[in-house]
């Protein structure tokens, strides 16, 4: 098993190296893409700074004050940048592989097809937002630790859990993306479904407390239990920022559900992908 894992690790690093060489071949384009991503990030920071000029927290009694909410935003950029760097370029090209017959050659490779489809290309410029997230998280944590009222420093356990649940968030987002990509085999082209992915994942960019009232409770239930995108950012952000201490032991169900949702999402994506491949008849048939 270890030798097999090591083989996949070497293949992945080869893909990543080749992608970096390709990006460095067109360095000006690479720099422009990085600056574009950073510009979008700065506009978001400015937007929320304006909001906090008029309110002390996002949502009444939610606990998401300015510093803690910017930790939430940094978590969003960590997860989204990883998804966009490692999975988005490959998902976008999957329908083209089907149309041109490139999937035929992928199926002949002596390696798992889903792994090959998922990691064959890395968009290094998308990691610019990851670097921006590090800066914003560091500034927010420094301000939390040095403020006069209720200073806060996360524990080592909180940091470890934060990294683990960020990984769970990436796995959930990847699973949703690969499921949508696999539908290309049945539909031929599914560009509209990629727009659907962006619409759905927009719900993960905000604290889940804002949905848990009124008619928003239907969205809260849908995007927590059916399509679990609300737990993607909320759970790791809650662990690192501690916006609200659990009022009862039952509130830890959200942490447990995130682990269950991650496992179910990965298994479901594997099943959908393999089922879709069973319907593939190659470009020449």
Automatic annotation (TrEMBL):
Pfam families: ABC2_membrane_6. The chain crosses the membrane at residues 30-50, 70-89, 122-142, 162-187, 218-240, 252-273. InterPro entries: ABC-2_transporter-like (IPR010390). Keywords: Membrane, Transmembrane, Transmembrane helix. Coiled coil: none annotated. The keyword Cytoplasm does not apply. PANTHER family: SLR0610 PROTEIN, SLR0610 PROTEIN-RELATED. This is Membrane protein containing DUF990. It comes from Rhodopirellula sallentina SM41.
């Amino acid at each position: 098993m270890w030798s097999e894992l090591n083989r996949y690790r070497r293949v992945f690093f080869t893909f990543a190296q080749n992608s970096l060489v390709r990006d460095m071949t067109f360095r000006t384009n690479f720099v422009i893409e990085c600056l574009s991503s950073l510009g979008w990030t700065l506009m978001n920071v400015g937007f929320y700074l304006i909001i906090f000029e008029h309110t002390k927290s996002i949502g009444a009694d939610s606990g998401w004050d300015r510093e803690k909410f910017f930790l939430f935003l940094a978590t969003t950029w960590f997860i989204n940048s990883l998804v966009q760097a490692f999975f988005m370029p490959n998902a976008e090209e999957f329908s083209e592989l089907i149309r041109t017959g490139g999937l035929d050659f992928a199926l002949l490779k002596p390696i798992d097809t889903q792994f090959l489809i998922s990691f064959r290309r890395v968009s290094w410029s998308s990691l610019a937002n990851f670097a921006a997230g590090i800066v914003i998280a560091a500034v927010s944590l420094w301000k939390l630790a040095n403020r006069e009222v209720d200073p806060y420093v996360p524990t080592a356990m909180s940091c470890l859990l934060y990294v683990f649940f960020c990984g769970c968030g990436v796995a959930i987002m990847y699973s949703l993306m690969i499921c949508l990509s696999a539908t290309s085999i049945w539909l031929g082209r599914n560009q509209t479904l990629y727009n659907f992915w962006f619409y759905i994942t927009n719900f993960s960019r905000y604290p889940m407390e804002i949905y848990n009232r009124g008619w928003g409770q239907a969205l809260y239930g849908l995007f927590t239990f059916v399509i679990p995108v609300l737990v993607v950012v909320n759970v790791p952000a809650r662990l690192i920022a501690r916006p609200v201490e659990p009022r009862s032991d039952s509130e830890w169900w959200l942490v447990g559900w995130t682990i269950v949702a991650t496992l179910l999402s990965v298994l479901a994506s594997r099943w959908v992908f393999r089922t879709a491949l069973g319907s593939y008849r190659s470009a020449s048939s």
